[in-house]
TrEMBL record:
GO cellular component: membrane
Highest taxon of source: Bacteria
Protein name: Short-chain dehydrogenase/reductase
Transmembrane segments: none
InterPro entries to which the protein is assigned, alphabetical: NAD(P)-bd_dom_sf, Sc_DH/Rdtase_CS, SDR_fam
SUPFAM superfamilies recorded: NAD(P)-binding Rossmann-fold domains (SSF51735)
PROSITE patterns per record: ADH_SHORT
Gene3D superfamilies assigned: NAD(P)-binding Rossmann-like Domain
Keyword RNA-binding: no
Family: Belongs to the short-chain dehydrogenases/reductases (SDR) family.
Keyword annotations: Oxidoreductase
GO molecular function: oxidoreductase activity
Amino acid sequence: MERTALVTGASSGIGKATAQLLAARGYRVLGTSRRPDVVVEEVEFLRLDLTDAGSIEALGERLRTVDILVNNAGESQSGPFEELPGEALRRLFQVNVLGPVRLSQLAVPGMRARGYGRIVMVGSMLASFPLAYRSSYVASKAAIKGFAAGARHEFSPFGVWLTTVEPGSIRTGINERRTNYVAPDSPHRRDFETMLAALDRNERAGLTPDKVAEVIVKAIESPRPKRMYAVGSNAPLVFALRRVMPSGLAEKLTHRRHQLPR
């Protein structure tokens, strides 16, 4: 049976790699972009702007026909907690949380009726290893992980599985599109810029998007996908250590990796 997959943010990075891998494995692939004139071989593009509720609802009919939804599109944001603008926070949560949740709500009825479905939330390892000056991004990825973990048992009896894939440092170029908020005279400025420089270095040295795509497809093709998969930043080792080390030590090691004095 030919399965139909919809991958958001499929014009670049992890989304593009996932769409291409699914197409190569015989899936019918729909991709979304704010610019639907993007060309990726064997991927049909649809317009989607996650900041626009109307744009999301316009995909309702197509979403009822998909068997697989990969919620990949998102925004990266950094800034000292006290300096994050309210409007920027609202946009971030609309793009990273509320938009993907609504897309999933629109897709679930069709999946349940057909007795098969996979919904993958592309999160971040920062949801498991929080980092200073990334609190808004951490919170948004923790929220989407919570939605998937909480809802998965509602739908697994119908053959519909929700799961989260947490990438670590991946070479997607997202550092060039990250929104940063810090005041010129901020008391946090030195540490903030130190963290950003380390974050950018880690991402440039990270895995390619293809490696994340392989994990996403592994989750999709599993008969019973796990609650969470992690990839990059030595994920198998750091998650194993996290289970046995004190939480304070895990926090210190996360900040040391980003050259922060914690």
